[in-house]
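Tokens as discussed.
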């Protein structure tokens, strides 16, 4: 009877509410595990610190109020790693996989959530999709572990080095940014193998499972039939072009601005690796190979912009997504040309997608603004004499939390309990998705809406 009652309760949830419930439940379980004596070295974590760490791991953010490598035991680090993996793949992906494995049918709710999480076009087989997601994740993270072990094992020893390689491989592919090293990856800044491996993992985790799957299928089709014309989807084109533009543009901008500042004195190769790494990791990965406080203010602003854009839909990363940026470009380009419709790559974009992008960006800016205002209230003791750089660090922190990036200018360690709660809520909203939260709060949508008489207003 209890099981039936619980099922009846869950059936009352809308799909969006169910998604939020599953994420919140996982975070709570992770926090409770992290408060146990086995999870910490020395004194157990307070519930707020454990909740912050669990949320950051589940939401693949990377912000942390503790040093994961020294403060948590092996068990505690394993809990964090499990939350990262669950958050990166999406908890409903795990659930659907288990349903399939147990030969239980996938409900309409489960299909809706998976569609919102991973899909941009219909698929023929749910089993094939989930199998491919898990298989790709396993293979990519395993290869990343082997490559990183080449660099970590000689320095740390076999088992510690292999464990660190696996932890950082999962953290990079899931765009989490958690590191077991106190300085993140600064000590490996000039190591080409570590840089290349992590950057590939971050990019693959950030472009989305469906894009990787489509590229593999396209490559296989082209090799099996060289004469055959293979067309990739508009979504994949937009993701690849926008991602490449952000990587190249961001790297060049950081290199030029910081050439005689934070990068001064470095060898040319190290400057290139550092600029490239920070341009890529800023888009929701969270690792760093240089102290961000050494950057000039224009570079900090650029990183905030990159964090806000974030990764691509259906990926492990956050942000308003690369497709939103591409849509805004397409909208302005089409309107300047006097075209009534929005087009990209000779394809017309549906108005529904445009409205969704506008809503997402406006909601994101509004939430970040409200959160920053609240954070300044609970953190600022003397507003009249507040350090301007400190304001920048709180601004940076709110963008980093919402976009699930995990980069910080140092404000994380100084957060009060109230400040931690604000950041926790931001991370949760950023990972679940603002539109999902809006649907969850609004409940079931109506099939119709009233349309009133039109009346014009002045603009500008």
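Sequence:
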């Amino acid at each position: 009877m209890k099981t039936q009652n619980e099922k009846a309760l869950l059936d009352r949830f809308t799909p969006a509410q169910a998604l939020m419930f599953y994420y919140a439940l996982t975070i709570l379980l992770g926090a409770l595990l992290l408060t146990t004596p086995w999870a910490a070295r020395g004194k157990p974590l307070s519930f707020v610190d454990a909740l912050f760490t669990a949320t950051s791991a589940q939401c693949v953010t990377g912000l942390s109020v503790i040093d994961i490598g020294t403060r948590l035991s092996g068990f505690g680090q394993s809990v964090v790693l499990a939350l990262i993996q669950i958050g990166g793949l999406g908890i409903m992906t795990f659930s659907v996989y288990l349903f399939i494995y147990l030969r239980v049918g996938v409900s309409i709710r489960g299909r809706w959530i998976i569609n919102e999480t991973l899909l941009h076009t219909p698929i023929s087989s749910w089993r094939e999709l989930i199998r491919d997601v898990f298989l790709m994740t396993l293979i990519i993270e395993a290869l990343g572990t082997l490559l990183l072990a080449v660099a970590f094992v000689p320095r740390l020893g076999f088992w510690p080095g292999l464990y660190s390689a696996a932890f950082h491989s999962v953290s990079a592919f899931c765009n989490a940014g958690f590191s077991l090293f106190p300085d993140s990856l600064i000590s490996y800044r000039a190591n080409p193998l570590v840089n290349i491996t992590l950057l590939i993992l971050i990019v693959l985790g950030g472009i989305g499972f469906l894009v990787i799957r489509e590229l593999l299928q396209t490559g296989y089709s082209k090799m099996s039939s060289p004469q055959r014309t293979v067309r990739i989807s508009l979504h994949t084109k937009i993701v690849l072009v926008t991602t490449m533009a952000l990587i190249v543009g961001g790297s060049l901008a950081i290199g030029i601005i910081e050439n005689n500042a934070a990068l001064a004195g470095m060898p040319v190769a190290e400057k290139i690796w550092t600029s490239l790494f920070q341009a890529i990791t800023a888009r929701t990965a969270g690792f760093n190979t240089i102290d961000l406080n050494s950057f000039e203010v224009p570079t900090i602003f650029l990183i905030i912009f990159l964090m806000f854009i974030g990764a691509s839909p259906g990926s492990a990363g956050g942000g308003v997504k690369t497709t939103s940026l591409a849509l805004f470009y397409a909208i302005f380009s089409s309107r300047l040309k006097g075209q009534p419709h929005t087009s990209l790559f000779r394809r017309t974009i549906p108005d529904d997608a445009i409205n969704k992008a506008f809503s997402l960006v406006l909601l994101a800016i509004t939430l970040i603004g409200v959160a920053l205002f609240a954070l300044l209230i609970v953190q600022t003791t003397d507003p009249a004499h507040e350090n301007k750089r400190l304001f920048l660090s709180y601004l940076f922190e709110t963008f980093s939390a919402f976009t699930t990036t995990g980069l910080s200018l140092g404000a994380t360690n100084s957060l009060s309990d109230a400040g931690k709660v604000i950041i926790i809520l931001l991370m949760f909203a950023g990972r679940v998705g603002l539109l999902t939260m809006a649907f969850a709060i609004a409940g079931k949508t109506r099939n119709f809406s009233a349309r009133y008489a039109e009346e014009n207003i002045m603009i500008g």
